[in-house]
## 1
Amino acid sequence: MDTAERRAWAYLSRVCEPPNPRLAALVHAEGPVAAAQRIRARDVDGELARATEARHEIDSADADLDVLDRLGGRLLTPGDDEWPHLALASFARPALAERPYGHPPLVLWAVGPSHLADVTARAAALVGTRAASAYGEHVTSEFAAGLVERDVAVISGGAYGIDGAAHRTALACDGETVAVLAAGIDVPYPSGHSALLHRIGRSGLVLTEYPPGMRPSRRQFLARNRLVAALSGATVVLEAGVRSGAANTAAWARALGRQVCAVPGPVTSASSAGCHIMIANHTAWLVTRAAEVVEAVGRIGELAPEPDRPTTSLDDLDDTELTVYEALPRRGARTVGEIAVRAGLPVSEVLGPLAMLDLRGLVSQEDGNWKLVAER
Amino acid sequence: MDTAERRAWAYLSRVCEPPNPRLAALVHAEGPVAAAQRIRARDVDGELARATEARHEIDSADADLDVLDRLGGRLLTPGDDEWPHLALASFARPALAERPYGHPPLVLWAVGPSHLADVTARAAALVGTRAASAYGEHVTSEFAAGLVERDVAVISGGAYGIDGAAHRTALACDGETVAVLAAGIDVPYPSGHSALLHRIGRSGLVLTEYPPGMRPSRRQFLARNRLVAALSGATVVLEAGVRSGAANTAAWARALGRQVCAVPGPVTSASSAGCHIMIANHTAWLVTRAAEVVEAVGRIGELAPEPDRPTTSLDDLDDTELTVYEALPRRGARTVGEIAVRAGLPVSEVLGPLAMLDLRGLVSQEDGNWKLVAER
């Protein structure tokens, strides 16, 4: 990209609130340099004229690109080989055109070594409440670690709580992680996460469609959520209260045709209430392990293994049943009388437990002889 | 019921493994006394002859009825006004006839003051693993208390763990509770629950289709589960491992056209894994509160109230956001500068939190003036 083009993209990134489909169409038709010139010269009409009126004279492109250079970042545009064309193609869905922000970004300001198109080929969003519980942070870490282990990148919004736990664990496991910001690339938000965002920018990717210096706003959070959803093959809500921004990301994922998953939790926890609502409404799939998410983002035929069966069902036995169970021989069979003797119990107290063990598939009986059922 | 009839029912209750649809048809056609006489005289053919061959000479009716009398119990039959005709009518579903045990009981041995037909008009089954976690027992108690508070009877199987917590809480809340046993009415199983079953028999109802002295067996547990499901408008699985008898009760409830509900829990808990599988498979509805179950068993139009919204969403705010929130006036509006002064923060640190509060619907802005949004 030559300097004039780069300056034009930077100018266009600030000249109106992204995403603007009219601006995108103009750039597509005439290229960024001509588009920028026409806007600067007020040679556009109707809504695009109105959308660019307030800022058309502001040209901080050089300063913005200096900020980006100082951060070691790059300005990504649709001509770049790491532009996530495939992920963003979902914005072509007709239903999205009507939706506020239902368009792809014009450019992305990026800092970090990860290759965006490669990352989005195999990525999941882990999102949730900032007021995460210890349970929520633990489960988020389990999911992030499980995804990274299976070469799935972890995408999130860099916020406190679930987002932070997701990014931190991905970093700790040497996995790829992407933070999509609602502010400029040089505006760490929340400020308590500056160090975390810095680390993500050194080993993963920090992305935003807003030019340097932009502070977050409500609209920007909503627009950002759509990118988190779009760049991910599936969105997993780890914890969410009944009013949660994570529900907005989940709604975007659904609208974009991505799989939406939610993790259940204790019904006594307000931080899981939003997840339970989504599962109960059938707007999210219940997932309990990273492997189930990989099934959604993974290559065709990459199925989650069956859940780990408990290595033994003996946890579920009471003392008498365990005593009776242990009175059965490893090989061969015993009569009830023999079992009673070995268990040190009257025969009458052995029958009920044997029936219960039989019901649980742990023992079986033939011709009055009881034996252990081999572990499946 | 005269003595001969009562003796005949007691004899028929023991003469073959219940439920036996051929025996039921014979009794329906000829009455219990004639049916008993024909079986005793081997004047039956085919499968009914075979099913009653081993026990046709055993007549312990007097002794069995003595046991029942000593317990202060009664033998319920289809002629009784408390026979749960409506609940048992679901066994007429064609798909059930093919299913083992897919038939109503012939008689029910009962101890306790509750009126069975009345109870089943408004009842829910609370079932689950015997190896309940503290969470599972707590949530079971919440559900049992919530059901009882709404005049819904709590039906369960009298086992350790979830069943026990359900019965105990229902008793503690002076609610109606029914324990359906897989053994004779005089055989407390598990033995550690003798006192609990005794208390249920004094204020609620203990039921079984097996004659006195019968010990539980695998088949009897499976047959018992169908009665727990049939006598309840909905079955709620509170906790269940991946192999759990509760799944069998849930399957019966589905087959009988009853609503099946499951309560989610921590994904880190093996005791919730069975619930999560049922919810994920869409074979059970996710429920989090008793009120949602009442909707399933209750009168038409008796809808669960909306979930309690947190009285405040402030739980979800970080310290800075809370500071900014509290810097807004109770009435009227303030500019960002005024808010910054009052919060003791630079303006630049107020904007992000304000945007976040706006996103959460807690504050709103007009012409640069910010105000609190009234609680909905």
Note: Chain A touches chain B through 63 residues (CB under 8 Å).
## 2
Amino acid sequence: MLTSGGCPKNMLSIKDALEALEGRWKLLILFSLTSGPKRFKQIAKDVIGITDKTLSKELKCLEANQLVKRTVHDTFPPTVEYAITSHGLSLEKVIEELHYWGLAHRKEIIGK
Amino acid sequence: MLTSGGCPKNMLSIKDALEALEGRWKLLILFSLTSGPKRFKQIAKDVIGITDKTLSKELKCLEANQLVKRTVHDTFPPTVEYAITSHGLSLEKVIEELHYWGLAHRKEIIGK
């Protein structure tokens, strides 16, 4: 079992992951993009509670970590679309486990 | 597949989880406690880079979410110990998936 021992080597990889995904928004933005590429305003609508300023900052950060790809389309006026990368999609299991745990947490703690 | 569709109902449970685990420290603190109950200073030593002030704040937050239990032992002087709860241990799979993803992320992005 991974979690028996608190091994420092495992701690490093968990730390790497948490630093890349820090905050309450990044995984929600990625989750919104799993249904397909989206415009800024569409993501803002999906991720309830996020401000435009925060979304803009988080998208830049996700792009720097190669989790999201920003594409400018040569339309008139130009349109910008964000898509999840294959590296972003590799977070699927993390998102899935968070979903299950979030369900249990609501039942156990928030629901009380 | 959970991540096909960005379903709003799934979004809520992921949001619940991310709010309870917000920041880069909580899961690392819990991971440190998986090897057994610890004193404050022992956790501070395990979780490299955390300040005493942040650790103190995070432990209170983890206690409020019933992920950590604080016990005061009637010794002289009194000693305080922190232990992971069964609800905290239910994060094992989340931590495990973050560990695997962190390994891949270091290889793919940080290592470049």
Note: Chain A has a mean pLDDT of 91.
